[in-house]
Write a structure and sequence with these properties.
136 residues, alpha+beta, seven-stranded antiparallel β-sheet, 7 strands
Length: 136
C-alpha cells in the first residue's frame, strides 16, 4: 500500500512530466524522443551477476539495459529488475525511487534504461549507475 507521502510525491512528479524537456536518445533509438526520469545506482548490485568477472568485463557506459517489473517480489511490491540485454541480472532500481516507475510500467508506458557509469574499483553498491527514460 502506498503511503500519503509517496502518493503526493508521485502525484507531483506525474504532474511535471508533460513539461519535461526531451533528452537526447541513445544512438540506436534516435527516432524516438526520450524524457529523462531518473539516474540512480543499481540496488543490490553486489549480490547479482554484475559481480562476476566475465559479466563485469562486458559492462560499458551507454549500454542499453532491460527493466522488468517484478510485482511478486516479497520484499518490494514495486520492484523493477535491471538486466543486461544478454539477460544478466545487475540488481534493482532502488525502492526509494521505484514507486512512480512501477506505476508507469504497470500502465504499459514504455521505459528505457542505459548504463550511465561503471566503476569496478569502487564499493560494490556504487559500481553501476543507471539512467531511466520514458520513450515518447
Amino acid at each position: 500500500m502506498i503511503d500519503r507521502r509517496s502518493f503526493l510525491h508521485s502525484l507531483g512528479l506525474t504532474a511535471l512530466l508533460p513539461f519535461a524537456v526531451g533528452c537526447k536518445a541513445p544512438a540506436e533509438a534516435k527516432a524516438k524522443e526520450m524524457v529523462h526520469l531518473l539516474t540512480t545506482f543499481v540496488a543490490g548490485f553486489q549480490y547479482y551477476d554484475g559481480m562476476k568477472e566475465e559479466v563485469a568485463e562486458t559492462l560499458r557506459e551507454g549500454a542499453e539495459l532491460v527493466l522488468r517489473r517484478e510485482p511478486g517480489n516479497p520484499h518490494d511490491e514495486n520492484a523493477i529488475e535491471v538486466l543486461t540485454l544478454e539477460g544478466f541480472k545487475l540488481g534493482y532500481l532502488p525502492r526509494a525511487d521505484n514507486t512512480v516507475l512501477a506505476a508507469m510500467a504497470d500502465q504499459a508506458i514504455q521505459l528505457r534504461a542505459e548504463l550511465t557509469a561503471v566503476d569496478i574499483r569502487t564499493e560494490p553498491w556504487n559500481r553501476a549507475l543507471v539512467s531511466v527514460y520514458q520513450t515518447i
